[in-house]
């Protein structure tokens, strides 16, 4: 319910939302605040602070937030004090995915199929970890290698590139994982 809570906080003109959770929770809050891409909010948008509480916490790690919730909370308290004095926080970009915003990364093709397959397993109660991603990714990648690529990459000011198997856009260092 992070998105609904974030929307209510924006309506109530809350200054800062503290998210205790993982990457998915952070994403839900950001999407609740920003709404659908192409229709940016016109009113107040609270700042978002993160206290890691998920399994991977890639967003918080890429921002330099300590993985330990107590250390992260202490860092946040210091930042909140600084925020009150100077009203300056670090801004991060988000990725327009058409129907949703991505805080971290987004993919099409092989990447999207792997994530969808892993999420399907997670919904069935299967534990998700790095090995699960590898076990899922390898057969999907092999299937992709046996068929014609269907994606065309279009970038502003460049000729389209056809014959693409996947596209991956990241808002953080891929070595954060």
Main sheet specs:
2 strands, parallel
- SSE series: HEHEHHEEEHHEEE
**Number of helical runs?**
6
Shape by Cα distribution: globular
Query: Taking Cα atoms only, what radius of gyration do you get, to the nearest Å?
Result: 18 Å
The strands making up the biggest β-sheet line up spatially as 1-2
Number of strands: 8
Task: Note the beta-strand portion.
Answer: 15-25%
Unreliable parts: none
Cα(first) to Cα(last) distance is: 26 Å
Structural class: alpha+beta
Helix content: 40-55%
Describe the fold and architecture.
By secondary structure, the chain is of the alpha+beta class. Helices cover 42% and strands 19% of the residues. The chain has 6 helices and 8 strands; from the N terminus they run αβαβααβββααβββ. The chain has helices spanning 2-11, 23-34, 58-62, 69-86, 110-123, 130-145, and strands at 16-21, 47-52, 95-96, 101-102, 105-109, 151-153, 161-164, 166-170. A two-stranded parallel ribbon has the order 1-2. A two-stranded antiparallel ribbon has the order 3-4. The longest helix has 18 residues, at 69-86. The chain is globular and about 55 Å long. The mean pLDDT is 87.
